[in-house]
Amino acid sequence: MIIAAVDIGGSKIALGLVSGEGRLLAESRFATDPAMPYAELVERIRQGLTALSQEGPVSGIGIGCTGRMDAKGVFQANSFLPNLEGRNLAEDLGLAFGVPAAVENDADAAALGEFRWGSGRGSRSMIFVTVSTGIGGGVILGGQLFRGLDGCHPEIGHHVIDPSGPACFCRASGCWESLASGTALGRRGEQMQGEAYGDARRICDLAEQGDPAAQELVQKEARYLGLGLANLITLFAPERIVLGGGLMNRWSLFEAGARAVIRAQCGLVPWQKVSLVRASLGSQTGLLGAAAVWVQRFSAPPTDRG
Ligand SMILES: [Zn+2]
């Protein structure tokens, strides 16, 4: 089985072929152009996938895309590709190829990729958390991706940690993203220590070198990360939480502090059994996630689970 994968992001659109075992066989990409008319976008993707699939027929097309869509895959307003609004890309690509196609939000796609072929493999309930400029993720319960009313994607980065915190575009103040994202860490660093501490990666570097101000910032960040993780554990008690995104490459800096918060706060669920693990698909997350969207929707459940 070969699955065609389409990963649509803010700066690039990646195309790939993925085997049924989760191996990336071929890939290509082109730049995301917000002005591209919808028909041209579909055609570019069709041509790109056709060029990749010379070696054999594909069973289906899986798509991961930034932005929101309803349960049928119809896009809502999309800031990166405004011409997607009101369109059903999965349906149109499926028709163009004569194979079934499925689409999910890119965070949900990444969650499915990790669940099937990455660090979530073998679990039945898993929450994928990605911490970089923002905080997002996907929730998988009983082997199924959880969707809310009208197919909406749960926004795990926007539950409130501290109502006196910064205002967020989500309308809340002090949500997890506004306090614990890489952007929030950099902002706090600049406010507390000046411009030299205005970047999350630099703060992590300085903390590793023993800089006391950076270490203090890291401790505070670990506390905010821990608060959000503790809430997810109390709400869902998942078998596994998979941590992805740029800031989680530095998880070792935050782990002890975050775990201390979880230990102190999760009194009602078996938090000791929840494993916190780093994501493992790396740069292939987008394409493997997109392929996993298709597998999850149209293929048999994995056999290595009960
Ligand atoms: Zn928010």
Protein described:
- There is one protein chain.
- The chain is an alpha/beta fold and 306 residues long.
- The protein folds into two domains: 2-105 and 283-298, ATPase, nucleotide binding domain (Nucleotidyltransferase, domain 5, 2-Layer Sandwich), CATH 3.30.420.40; 119-280, Nucleotidyltransferase, domain 5 (2-Layer Sandwich).
- It has nine helices and ten strands.
- It has helices at residues 38-52, 89-97, 106-117, 176-180, 182-193, 200-208, 212-236, 251-265, 285-298, and strands at residues 2-8, 12-19, 24-31, 60-65, 101-105, 126-131, 135-141, 144-145, 240-244, 275-278.
- It has a five-stranded mixed sheet. Strands 8-7-6-9-10 form a five-stranded mixed sheet.
- Strand 1 (2-8) and strand 2 form a beta hairpin.
- Helix 3 (106-117) packs across helix 9 (285-298) and helix 5 (182-193) runs antiparallel to helix 7.
- It is globular and about 55 Å long.
- Zinc ion binds next to helix 4.
Please, what is the average pLDDT?
95
Helical proportion, percent range: 25-40%
Shape: globular
SSE-based structural type:
alpha/beta
The DSSP helix count reads: 9
Full CATH superfamily name of the largest domain = ATPase, nucleotide binding domain
Q: Please indicate the count of domains.
A: 2
Largest sheet geometry:
5 strands, mixed
Bound molecules: zinc ion
Distance between the termini: 23 Å
Unreliable sequence segments: none
